[in-house]
Structure formats: C-alpha cells, structure tokens
Specification:
- The protein is an alpha+beta fold.
- It is built from 25 helices and 19 strands.
- The strands form 5 sheets. Strands 12, 13, 15, 16 and 17 form a 5-stranded antiparallel beta sheet that branches.
- A hairpin with a 4-residue loop joins strand 15 and strand 16.
- It is flat, with a radius of gyration of 46 Å.
- It starts with 16 loop residues before the first helix and ends with a helix.
- About 12% of the residues have low confidence.
Length: 842
C-alpha cells in the first residue's frame, strides 16, 4: 500500500471532505491546547489578580515583583509552546480518519491494482472491491479531538487558574484592570488625569451585596445604616477630593489629602467626588428598625407543671437572641404563714427564648417551654417580661406582665403540706424553726398519715437536720439540699411507691377526687384519669391471678359473702369513660358521685373469671372474643368507607347496582353512631375508638413470655399502626388509602388471632399434661383458635367463630361483582384503580 500524501486527490474521497476537515481542525486544536495551556494559565492568573484589585491592597514593590514573576512565567510558557507545537498535515488527518473505519477503506481507495490489469475478470473484481471500499468510506464521521492534557499537567494548575478567574468574574470587576496603568512610571494613564474607585459595603447581617461605585450612575442611592464607604484615589495628590455629609463627622481643615478614605453612613445626605471623572449621589439612609416581641397568649400548663408560653417576635433583618426575665411580684403575694417574713434576696429568673432552628427570623412564633415547679416562686404571682436583640445590638423589652408562675400541683394533703413547708424554707432561712415545729406536728402520729414507714423515717431525718441547723445556722448549700430532699419526699407521697395494686388504685382514686375538689385543670385531670385506668387494670390482673391460685374453694367462700358483685373489665372501662365524660362537660358533682360509686364497687368487686365446664370463660377466650369483635367492627368500617368512596365518584351509580340493595336497606335502618356516620369525620372517630379498644385488649392479652404470645402482640402492634394510618387518611378524605390501611389492619388482626390461638393451645396442652384424662380429652377437642371440634375430626358449626355455610359462595359473588365493575369504562379512574388492586390481591 502507498502511504498517504498531502497532494493525494482521489475521486472516491469527495464524499469525506467534511469529516476530513473537521478531523484536521480537531488535530490543530489538540496541538494548540497542548502547547498553549501554560500560557493560558498564566494569563488567567494575572487577570484574576487584577480584577480582584490585589494591586490596590499591596505595596508597589510587591506589584512590581509580581509583574516580574508573571513576565518570566509568560516567557517560559512561550518557550514551552514553541517546543511542543507542531502543524498537523492533511495526510495525518486522513490517516486518523481512516483508522476509525473498519478495514481502512480510504487507504484501499488510494491503492492501485498491482497485477491483472489486462484481465477483464480481474478488473471486474477490482472495481467491485473499490466500490465496496467507497461505500464504507462514505460512512466516515469526524474523529473527536483529544483535548486532555492531564498527562502534561499532573498538578492540575490549569484548573487552579480557571478557579481564580471564575471567582474574579463573580466578585471582581474588569474596570479594576485599568488601575494598574497608574502604577507604571510614565504611563499614558497619568497623562490623561487622575482616577478613582469606590465601594459601598452594607453590614453583613443585612444580606445586601457590595456596590462598586464606579459602576453606578449619579442620582439617588439607598443604603442601609452602617454601610462602609471606601474610596481610593490614584494619580496626583489633591487632584481628586471626596465630599460627604452622610457620616455626620466633618473633616478637619488641616488634614492632608489621603489616598484611601473610608466612612460609614449614619444619616441621609450626599456623597461626591470632585475632580476629573467625579460623581455625586444623593444617599437616603435605610434605618435599622428595632426588634419587637410580644406574648401571644396565656401560658399553658401541663399536668406535671411544665409551662408553655407562646410569643411572637419580628425584626426587619432578623432577631439574633432573646430572653425572658421573671421577677417576684411581692406586692401581690398573700403574705400569710411562712410568707409573712421578708424573703431572702433572690435574683430574677432569666431563661433564653427559643429561636427557630431553620428559616428566617424576621417574623416567627415560638413557645417558651420551661418547668418552674422546683423554684421557690412556683404558684406565686410574678412579673414576666420578654426582650429580644438584633444584629445591630438594638434591644426591645416588653412591659412586665402579671401572671402566676406555673408549677406542679400536689393533691395529696400530706404531700401538699410538705411542699408548702419546702416553699417557706426557700422563702427565707429564718423560717427554719417554724418549719421544724410544723413538720413535727404533722408527723406526730405517723401511722395515721403515712402509708409506709420509709416515708415517715425520711421526714423524721429532715426534721432532725433542720432542728440542728436552725440553732447553728443554715447555709445556702444545705438549704438547697434539704429542699431537694423534701421535693423527693413529696413526689413519693403524691405518686406512691406501693407495690400492692389495690392500694395503688385506691391512691389514684383519692388523687382524682382531690383534684376535682380543688379545681384542677383539664390536663391534670386527664393525667390522673390515665393513672386511674392503669392502676385499675393492674389491680384486676392481680385479682385474676389471685383467684386462679386460690381455686374453687376460695371462689365458693367469696361467693357466700352477700356484698360481692360480679363485674367485667369492660364494665369498669365504661364507668371510667362516663366519669371522664362528665368531667370534660364540667359536671363535677355528678363525676364525684360516679367516682364514689366506682370506689364502693371496687371494694366489693370480684372479676368474673369462669372456669371451663363451669359456665365461664378463661382470659384467653375473652381475649379471642374481643379480637373477633374488633375484627368484625373493622370490617364494618371498611365496608362503610368503600360505600362512601362509591358515592363520592358515582353518586347515582348505587341505585340500580345488584347485590347492594340489602346493604342499603340495612344502612338506612341504622342511627348515627350505629353503623353509617354522616361524613368522614364520624368514620375517623369510630376508627380512633376502635384503635383505643385494641390498645386496651392488647394490654390484657394472655400468653406473656411465650413465642406465640409475642407473635400475637407484634401482629396487634402492626394492626394498631395500620388503624392509625387509616384514621389519618379518613380525616384527609383519602378513602382509597384508608381502605388499603384497613385491609392491612384486618390481615394483622387475623395473624394475631392465629398466634393467640397457638399460644392458648400450647397452654391448654401444658395444663392437660398436669391434669387428668378428662382434661386431656377436652384439650384435644379444641382447635388452635379455641373452637370445639366434632368427634370425627371436623369443625363444629357452633360457636361465635364458625363460618357461614354459604361463605364461599358469597365470596365468589363478591369477586365476580368486583371484576364486572372494574371493566366498566364509565366509572372514575380512581375507583377502577382501587378495584384492580383488590383483584391483584385476591
């Protein structure tokens, strides 16, 4: 094959002239980039320094030195360019393009036939070969240029130069490059006259950008207060003069002209530069407004004394910090008993105000959440004021507001007495002798007021410490230590450390009764009501265990007492729900009467716990029945949500639908609250009530400690979370999502019932192994769900969990109806998507 030549012109190459020229241009670009990249880096670095104004902030000697370094670097870059630059030829471009094609067709087109030139057959073969190569060459595309120079620039200096130049483009100015001309001796720039440049830099907290004065036209100019004005003068000294009236500080007459002048904008006025190229601006100062803060509402107090005080703050540029100052309103204090004496000096309480973690602070609302229950001023009148600070050190303070400093309230009389004496001790050390006398009187007969000897001994110890220190002096540290011990004692007396569930339940009833008498808040009553529910459930579980241990003899002996009552846990829960409802409605007298009736019933109550074969049910069977009822109610809620979804997208489509007539008649006969509810909120409330019922059932679930019991609890947890999601979706009127969540809840309930049935079956087998043959036979006649089986091994058709005989037939009809509706194109797309999801599931 003949090598490529620059003057090769072949007719078959006419079609590749475009790709050839582009490939050739790319080779020129490669050569130029590989040779000139050092020169480009030097040029970009020099331009970046000049655009950023580095020549104006350093001394002239450094500028000259940098210029010499730049010149030497430029010379070295030129030498590098001459040594590495080469001119690519057309033959080289043609060879590169040919190498990108399979079989090198361009080279084949330029070849001549070596043998067989006179043979017709050989010539025909050669022409066919040439035509094939020409067609292949026609598909040529330009070869991209390889502009990578990483092998020649291992330290990426070109990127460093490009980065500096980009920063200069963003933060610098091209006009600053001309200022270097004034530094060259004899330059033409000086001959044309002096030059100037200036900047207006607002305070950082304003978030406003820096202005380059040379780019601004004359006229009005608005600048924030505190803006720093910097003006630099170049050329003959005295040729330019800066005149300003915005700083409020006149320049002395004997001060020599300066090359750099800076001042701040403190008032509206003017800024002018007198001389060649001078300008004037009328500056309007934008004042920095002081921040503002106000209390946005009444403080909210939690049951344990935590205060939540809403407030609103604002500032034109943002609030930096704030604090709340609380001082004792001594004039409003009821100066009786331990408060009659003058109080010890105590500093005001200062707490920081919470600031938004994200977002702007120009206008926001937050809540000050603190717990002052242990402070001596708790539940006493105080004055509170809020103050905020902005970035310019401006402060705003609200006028003091009167309020009662929230703190925890104690409803146990003995605990309240201890807390009152603790407050008097912190009020003044001079109250120590009086405290000793009062506490001795309170604990004179400890068996009448204390429930445990430990509490009585703890109080006696504090009395002895106070008695000794009252005679020899009470230090601040000891005062704080005794106050902390009295607080712990009051908490113990209020909440109790009793292990007996009955005593804990009675204690909760007494605290609730005291709270209703003393006018407690709704939050405190709700907290005490929850405590009573927990204590009652623990007591009933303990009573069930005790009855199981005592056996039948104990039951007969207890049944002979004429004052006993038969109650279930559901009855107790309904009574407590009634009490809470009366309290929420403000009917305290009726609530107190209902609470007294509950106390009397609990004193004479025994939980109905039937034994197998005696007409009663075991706890496991009760739990299984409760879960079955929950599953049935969840299915009803899901059906109701599905009907509402149909009415939402097809209001008139249910009138003639087969298979729904009975359901509509059934729904029409129900009252609100017994099936269909008006609107989605009522369904959501029923879903929430069902979720609460599931929580209560989960707390009474038997089989604790076994693997099956834990599996049942995990399944019920999943069901509860699905119910929560369904409730949220119902409140947002997202019925399709709610139905999916309800389906997940029902599936989890079924899994929980299966796991509970396994746990009960295992427990029955263990009990049967320890009993007689009759017990074994009875255990073998029940399936894992506790249902009786027939003698031939089939399931009995009796019982609450038995399936309907035609259940499978109805299931087939329902599935056919879903398929029919999913194929109707006139139905809404959302409803059809939901029906298709149902078909995918089944």
């Amino acid at each position: 094959m003949a090598p490529f030549k620059d003057d090769d012109q072949h007719p078959g190459l006419a079609k590749i002239r475009g790709p050839l020229r582009l490939t050739w241009a790319g080779m020129w670009a490669e050569s130029l980039v590989r040779a000139l990249w050092p020169m480009l880096a030097v040029v970009l670095l020099v331009l970046a320094g000049l655009m950023l104004g580095l020549q104006d902030v350093v001394v002239l000697d450094i500028v000259y030195g940098a210029a010499v370094v730049a010149f030497v670097a430029a010379c070295a870059a030129l030498v590098y360019a001459f040594r590495n630059f080469y001119i690519p030829t057309r033959a080289e471009a043609l060879a590169r393009l040919d190498a990108s094609l399979p079989g090198r067709p361009i080279q084949a087109l330029m070849d001549d036939q070596a043998i067989g030139a006179g043979d017709a057959a050989s010539m025909a073969v050669w022409r066919a070969h040439q035509k094939c190569m020409a067609d292949r060459a026609a598909t040529a595309r330009a070869v991209p240029a390889d502009l990578r120079v990483s092998g020649r620039d291992p330290y990426a200096l070109r990127y460093v130069a490009l980065l500096f130049f980009t920063v200069a483009l963003i933060f610098g100015s091209v006009l600053r490059v001309g200022s270097v001309a004034g530094m060259v001796p004899g330059a033409s720039g000086l001959a044309s006259g002096p030059v100037w440049e200036g900047w207006a830099e607002p305070p950082r907290y304003t978030g406003k950008p820096t202005l380059y004065l040379a780019d601004l036209e004359e006229g009005p100019l608005s600048l924030p207060k505190g803006t720093l004005i910097t003006v630099r003068l170049y050329g003959e000294v005295g040729a330019l003069e800066v005149v300003e009236t915005v700083s409020g500080q006149g320049r002395p007459a004997d001060v020599e002209p300066a090359l750099v002048i800076d001042f701040k904008v403190n008032q509206s006025g003017g800024i002018g530069i007198d001389g060649p190229g001078g300008r004037n601006w009328d500056v309007a100062m934008l004042p920095d407004a002081a921040p503002k803060v106000e209390i946005a509402g009444e403080p909210q107090v939690a049951a344990l004394g935590e205060m939540s005080l809403p407030f609103a703050a604002s500032d034109d540029y943002g609030v930096e910090a704030g604090e709340a100052r609380i001082s004792l309103d001594l004039a409003s204090v009821d100066r009786r008993y331990g408060l009659a004496i003058e109080p010890d000096a105590r500093p005001d309480v200062t707490v920081p105000l919470p600031m938004p973690i994200s977002g702007k602070r120009t206008n926001f609302e937050e809540n000050l959440i603190e717990n002052f229950s242990k402070h001596p001023w708790a539940n006493l009148p105080v004055k509170i004021s809020l103050s905020v600070l902005d970035a310019s050190e401006q402060q705003f303070t609200t006028a003091p507001s009167d309020m009662i400093l929230p703190g925890r309230r104690f409803f146990d009389p003995l605990a309240a007495a201890v807390i009152e004496q603790r407050r008097d001790l912190l009020w003044s050390k001079a109250n120590a002798p009086r405290l000793v006398q009062l506490l001795k009187a309170v604990s004179y007969r400890p068996q009448d007021v204390f429930r445990t000897e430990t509490s009585a001994l703890r109080l006696r110890r504090q009395i002895n410490r106070l008695d000794i220190r009252a005679k020899y002096g009470l230090t601040d540290d000891l005062q704080a230590e005794i106050a902390e011990d009295l607080w712990d004692l009051a908490i113990e007396l209020e909440e109790g450390v009793l292990a007996d569930a009955l005593e804990r339940m009675r204690r909760a009833q007494e605290r609730l009764a005291e709270a209703m008498k003393n006018g407690a808040s709704n939050e405190e009553i709700a907290e005490l009501m929850d405590e009573l529910r927990r204590a009652t459930e623990e007591y009933m579980q303990q009573l069930q265990r005790q009855q199981a241990q005592e056996g039948q003899d104990g039951e007969q002996q207890q049944g002979q007492q004429g004052e006993t009552m038969q109650m279930t846990q559901d009855d107790l829960q309904r009574m407590m729900d009634r009490i809470q409802e009366l309290m929420e409605q403000g009917r305290m007298a009726e609530a107190e009467q209902a609470l007294r009736e509950l106390q009397e019933m609990m004193e004479n109550m025994r939980v109905t716990e039937g034994q197998p074969g005696q007409g009663g049910e075991s706890p496991g069977e009760q739990a299984m029945e409760g879960l079955a009822d929950t599953l049935r109610e969840q299915q009803e809620l899901s059906d109701q949500a599905f009907r509402d979804l149909q009415e939402q997208f097809n209001p008139n489509g249910n009138q003639d639908q087969p298979g729904e007539e009975g359901g509509q008649q059934e729904g029409q006969g129900q009252q609100p609250g017994e099936g269909q509810q008006p609107g989605q909120d009522s369904i959501a409330e029923r879903q929430q009530a069902l979720r609460n019922e599931l929580n209560r059932q989960e707390g009474r679930l038997p089989g604790q400690g076994s693997a099956e019991g834990e599996a049942a609890r995990e399944a019920l947890d999943r069901a509860g979370r699905a119910m929560d999601d369904a409730e949220q979706a119902l409140r947002q009127n997202e019925l399709a999502d709610a139905i999916d969540d309800q389906a997940r809840a029902m599936e989890a309930l079924r899994e929980g019932m299966r796991a509970l049935g396994d746990a009960l079956a295992q427990e029955q087998q263990q009990q049967a192994g320890q009993g007689n043959a009759e017990g074994n036979q009875r255990a073998n006649q029940r399936d894992p769900l506790g249902r009786d089986q027939s003698s031939n091994g089939g399931e009995s058709t009796q019982g609450d969990l038995a399936l309907d005989n035609d259940a499978y037939g109805r299931a087939r009809e329902l599935l056919d109806e879903i398929r029919r509706r999913s194929g109707e194109t006139e139905r809404p797309e959302v409803e059809r998507d939901y029906l298709n999801r149902l078909l995918d599931r089944f």
